[in-house]
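Researcher: We're reviewing a set of sequences before deciding which ones to prioritize for further study. For each one, I'd like a predicted 3D structure that I can look through quickly. This is DUF5082 domain-containing protein. If possible, include the structure in token form so it fits the rest of the review sheet.
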Amino acid sequence: MSDDKMFEFMTKMYSEMQEGFKDIKTEFKDIKTEVNDIKTEIKENTKRLDAIENDVKKLGVKIDGKLIPTSDALLDGYKCNSEHITIIDDKIDRLQIDVNSISMKVSYNDSRIIEISKNLRKVE
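Model: Here's the predicted structure for DUF5082 domain-containing protein, in token form for your review sheet.
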């Protein structure tokens, strides 16, 4: 191979390598730009997640501060009502016993009045 051909070959190779390097540099810049875009999106998403986390914490405080005492108060009210209903049921049971007793006495007295009235008629 002559020196001229060797020189042309090397020049051609050098030229092709330079084109390849330019392509690689361009692709590297594109990748670098994409990575920066991704980093920016990650930072924005991190900020959004922090905001959501703060909102969740606030809701937790509201639940602890408002709903739990409210539910406890409702349970206390339910227990209190249940106790009063039990007391009222006991009183109704005692009243029913008293009413039954009075009914029996009225029936007995009615019978006695009828007997006495029959006896009075006989005496007259």
